[in-house]
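Hi,

I'm pasting everything inline rather than attaching a file, because the server keeps stripping attachments. The sequence lines come first, and each chain or strand is labelled.
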Amino acid sequence: MDGRGALTMLKMEDGALRKQLEFLIELDRLKTIVRQSRIVSHSRRENSAEHSWHLAIFALVLADHAVVELDALHAVRLLLVHDIVEIDAGDAPIHSSTADKDGLQTAERNAAKRIFGLLPQDQGERMDAFWREFEEAKTPAARFAKALDRLQPLLLNVMTDGGTWTENAVTEEQVVERYGPTIEAGSPALWTAARKLVAHHFAERRNL
Amino acid sequence: MDGRGALTMLKMEDGALRKQLEFLIELDRLKTIVRQSRIVSHSRRENSAEHSWHLAIFALVLADHAVVELDALHAVRLLLVHDIVEIDAGDAPIHSSTADKDGLQTAERNAAKRIFGLLPQDQGERMDAFWREFEEAKTPAARFAKALDRLQPLLLNVMTDGGTWTENAVTEEQVVERYGPTIEAGSPALWTAARKLVAHHFAERRNL
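And the predicted assembly:
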């Protein structure tokens, strides 16, 4: 029996649970979406599923540093959901110069419609609302989640000889410009610390 | 600059944030802990970080099927934390016959002490309490989380030609015995569905 046979079997089940299990099986594909960041061991690049787990723990641990008091578990929920659209739309590297922003937004909206559409309607709409809340970054939880989504790859780069910065010849000024506003909007305290790490990293590189 | 240099830099920061960032960087190692289950694409085995993400989404999506009403986000929190001890203690395969249960428990307790001990004391104690709540499986959220931790590899096996069951020549009766009680204790509805998938899988195999 292959996977398709099992999915056919799931179709024999009635009601919401069948749809929920199909959705959860579809999500497994996020484990195959490879990001640019390397994991700390340097052994390989990170995938979007393990990245999402790491970010969810960042939210649990760092919530007290947010610019305003917020519901840490709601930020966790946004981060668990935020990259699911990459199953169809792929990961958009921060240092890519060829990004087609409009095309990407359309691809992500279509992905959200297809993937969250696998769920029972009310639940799919709630998941879609979490994803949109993250994307729009208008609520405190979403702004904090976005800040962590920038802070985590910054830390991985610092831990892996500059990672994607070194690979793409990104300057200290470009790092400050590309990471700073998003991190600072969610947590000035985290940006103060991250800025020091970035300064230290580039000072070390200049001394090589 | 290597990772150690960056950690030394973090030590220059004062207070709680330095400890929290060191903890979060240490957690990156969970991405290198490889489980027995294969991901749905069959391409490789799953790691414990992406497994934890998948389970957290299982909890968000399936909470209404729990045996009693519970706080889904608390179950999410338990699942985000539940495998962190594997960074030191490794993953214990369900179908291994050589498991040293007492030795494993000691290794996991020591791992929890070391890893959660990286955090500021009060936060480390809270994380340790989440991990112990999961392990003890006495609260509704923990029992539900444990049920999902059995359901997810069951689904992956069904989707990958029997996965670890086929590799280890595990029988249908052994599957029922090893997965059933834990899933049923958290969610009779999920066990009813999973039992049907298991029956279908083994019926298909007999017809090969």
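The longest helix of chain B spans residues 140-159.

If the labels don't parse on your end, tell me and I'll reformat.
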